[in-house]
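Working notes for the structural subgroup meeting. M.R. asked for a predicted model of this chain before we commit to crystallization trials. I am recording the input and output together here so anyone reviewing the notebook later can reproduce the run.

Input as submitted:
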Amino acid sequence: MATDHATRPNGAFPTGDFPAGTRAPGLPASLTPALIERLTAHVSAAPDAARVTTNAPYTGAPLADFRVSAPEDVEAAFARARVAQMSWAATPIAERKRILLRYHDLVLARQDEALDLMQAENGKTRRDAFLEVVDIGIVSRYYARTAARHLGPKRRRGAIPLLTHTTELRHPKGVVAVVSPWNYPLSMAAGDTIAALMAGNAVVQKPDTQTALTALWSMDLMYEAGLPEDVWQMVIGRGSSIGDALMDNADYMMFTGSTATGRRIASDAGKRLIGASLELGGKNAMIVLDDADIEKAAEGAVNACFPSAGQLCVSVERLYVAESVRDAFVAAFVSRTKRLRIGAAYDYGVDVGSLTTPSQLETVTGHVADAVSKGATVLAGGAARPDLGPLFHEPTVLTDVTPGMTVYDHETFGPVVSVYSYRDVDEAVALANSTSYGLNASVWTRDGARGRAVAARVHAGTVNVNEAFAAAWGSIDAPMGGMGDSGLGRRHGAEGILKYTEAQTVAHQRLQGFHPPARISPATWAGLLTGALKVMKAAGLR
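Returned structure, recorded in token form:
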């Protein structure tokens, strides 16, 4: 199924492959200079600090100007946060719940502002941005209404029945550092912070500078909802400049980003003996079984591979298709891919938006060029689209990808997917697991029980059956995170809030302890306790 795309250079594009795209209009009216100035004023930095300017991916035009935080600004933010955290930790959970539910309502009511910000800073489509609004609504509601259950005192079985009263308590860690990425600027900035705040912590956050306006907007709304002053603070700067200050002052580190940086953070956290939760890279696989509904699987593959122009930690970059249905699946998938509308619009009129940074475009074009030069075939896409904007790239489907090509086992983090075939399910599972990553996966079949059985064999923190990633991600009561090089720790569910706490056991012993009473010898006492243990086992007691 080779096409002439295989030899055309990056930057060139044929007519007719994709619907006509559109260049971006100017910034939407909601992003007024007054709004941007108000948001940037929230950065914890000196008035005379150095400044950095971000650019809009759609056009390359300047977007926002930020003061840059120095290490001493970070230390000052932590100092203020520690003072604020003491009273915040003493705030009843019912009051924290009220604030979070008010924040939930504000996010939904002012979503157009958030959507405009995310599109302007990240370059994604409005549909992809809206999913972040939905995500934060779900997370806010979930932790507001379950925190009391997760965090409340819990009776535990005592050492001696009836005589030992044992309770598990949960205390906040203190001040949590949250380092959030540019690809999902609302979900990643607010989602992890919500759980940390609800657990009684203060937060000092470093968002990626490119999408800092969205993070600052979220913080601004949380304060409008009633969060006390200084409980959530924002610093701006490169990790190489302020990363040490964040690590040196944090009581817990929440990081989303590259595996290489995650390893350094894990090492530094270990030296300080503080906890860290890390969501890192992925090379996610989708398995199409031989009994799959081809049309639904092809549509699912489009939704799995190209949201946010492929800049999604849980998106699919490897497609494994049963040999018996490969040709039919590839035809359906490529056809759907070529119908995707690429472009820039502050409405719901396009399917695939822009990449976010020049370095990301360089990575995508480099991976495709390397693969083509070594024999890969381009079935759809394959080129940058400078006619639409500086950072656009076509959704790209590759086949004939082999080891030795960069795209084979390195994360592209862009709209590029490679299609492979397999003979039987054992081979499919082995191929899906043939990576050091283990973040997300997808299995497609008409037989749900079969799909779940295959899913259980895949080495990934979340696996979706007949869905790309939203089923697992949206199941907020269940944990989400990676295995292997994809990270440590989990967000969502009980684990997503308990990781921000310290567990404490309080055991009250009554009447008789473990030492023998005055009139009983140690040998006799040992015999009595031995007998008691045997009775407890026979009675089925733990």
